[in-house]
Amino acid sequence: MQRIRVMLVEDDTPTRKRLSQALEQHEQLDLVGSAGNCKQARVLFEAHPLPDVLLTDIGLPDGSGFDLIKALRSRSERIEIMVITVFADEKNVMTALEAGATGYLLKDASQDNIGDSVVQLVAGHSPLSPAIARHVLKRFSAPAQPVPVKKTPALDVPNITKREKQVLECVAKGFSYKETAEILGNSIHTVTSHAKKIYRKLSVKSRSEAVYEAIQLGIIQVSE
Known about the structure:
The protein is built from ten helices and seven strands. Strands 2-1-3-6-7 form a five-stranded parallel sheet, with helices on both faces. Helix 7 packs across helix 8, helix 8 (177-184) packs across helix 9 and helix 9 (188-202) packs across helix 10. It is globular, with a radius of gyration of 18 Å. The chain has helices at residues 13-24, 38-47, 65-75, 90-99, 111-122, 130-141, 162-172, 177-184, 188-202, 207-216; strands at 4-9, 29-35, 53-56, 59-60, 63-64, 80-85, 103-106.
């Protein structure tokens, strides 16, 4: 069983200790570094190999976790990024996802749930606390607002192939890349390759962003 390397960024010392224990006690996880602020986190990123997962708060004393997410995402598309915070409002949730986060948990999550959620993240899922999931679903299902719409020539819509569209539709339904591969009869490497091409064509950095952009451009539809 391949172990998952995790870095933790959390400014509150008791909370950082609790989260560290949750990660260290999980049989599939290795905590390879922890930091209490943005400056310490950036030092970790430079001094050590990049982790498989970054677990970070967004309200840090010397900056925003959003900046850390963007910085790490710009260096690697393969890293999974989980936000763990007390902020459950829609603005913070959507800002985190748009910055490149692939999971979002509230700090009241149980210790066991935190470790398992990190494992699920690496497996291709996007763990969200129930209150957070409601924000995401609300954003996708909200009726369109009566704002002026700029007409965009058809050539501005990225050329998404039939198979890439099928991958997007599976991801939009909540399937992991592994599950998508089984549904489409492809290997997970093929599905991952399709996903990278989709990210590039849509100019996005996460699964949630890809689905959101594809819906906005009319490439895929979601059932009511």
